Amino acid sequence: QVQLQESGGGSVQSGESLRLSCAASAYMYSGSCLAWFRQVPGKSREGVATINVDGFTTYADSVQGRFTVSRDNVNRTMYLQMSSLNPEDTAMYYCAAMFRRCAVTVPSNLYRHWGQGTQVTVSS
């Protein structure tokens, strides 16, 4: 059973917007902090945004003010609304979950549950 499934990636022009979704199983969604990471080839995964069960959010400095993370408790889905995209945002985006409070400063190796990823490509 797929626990986390991302969707919504694609190719856009610089300055455009995109919304990513992460659908979670009932087990994975309830009580978990959800996070977005991104990774480019040759680099480690970078924390982008997190949202705790109580709605508390954290963001990487590089996306603060441009990206917004939210969660829909009815549909068990986390979203990442990305605006003012630039080529540096090009990466594979992953969602992750952990059953404790989380923040973008938490290293990726502490997350045990991951989706398969969705590619975002921003051209100038």
Detailed description of the structure:
The strands form two sheets. Strands 2, 4, 5, 6, 9, 10 and 11 form a seven-stranded mixed sheet that branches. This protein has a four-stranded antiparallel sheet with strand order 1-3-8-7. A hairpin with a 5-residue loop joins strand 5 and strand 6 (57-59). The mean pLDDT is 96. The protein contains one helix and eleven strands; from the N terminus they run E-E-E-H-E-E-E-E-E-E-E-E. 34% of the residues are buried. It is globular, with a radius of gyration of 13 Å. The chain has one helix at 26-29, and strands at 4-7, 10-13, 18-24, 33-39, 46-51, 57-59, 67-72, 77-82, 91-98, 113-114, 118-123. The chain is mostly beta strands. It starts with a strand and ends with a strand.
